[in-house]
Amino acid sequence: xxxxxxxxxxxxxxxxxxxxxxxxxxxxxxxxxxxxxxxxxxxxxxxxxxxxxxxxxxxxxxxxxxxxxxxxxxxxxxxxxxxxxxxxxxxxxxxxxxxxxxxxxxxxxxxxxxxxxxxxxxxxxxxxxxxx
Length: 132
Known about the structure:
Strand content: over 45%
Largest sheet: 6 strands, mixed
Order of helices and strands: HHEEHEEEE
Low-confidence stretches: none
Strand order of the largest sheet: 2-1-6-5-4-3
Number of strands: 6
Number of helices: 3
Structural class: alpha+beta
Shape: globular
Helix content: 25-40%
């Protein structure tokens, strides 16, 4: 069990790196929604809690319209715990830097995710994504 969990933790950490590479390119949301459950719960600073792909795509498009270029997420202090088989709680810190139309944003944030590992597809599915 310990080897399985360690392997999954390594996969989760590799996924986080890949996730933020795509997120920072601020290209399109299709790569991101592939890893979000249909009923994902999300909260970002300045926004109320929302649910689902449609609302995420709307938030993403609104965010992109205020940006002047790519963003940067500097992730640190990743903590992964398996609350039950293939269900994980992930928390980490992020320094978020973004060139916006009216200022450069430079924030220290905390992210808390709930993630399920799809053993059939061997990939993660984010079910909750809370940024504070």
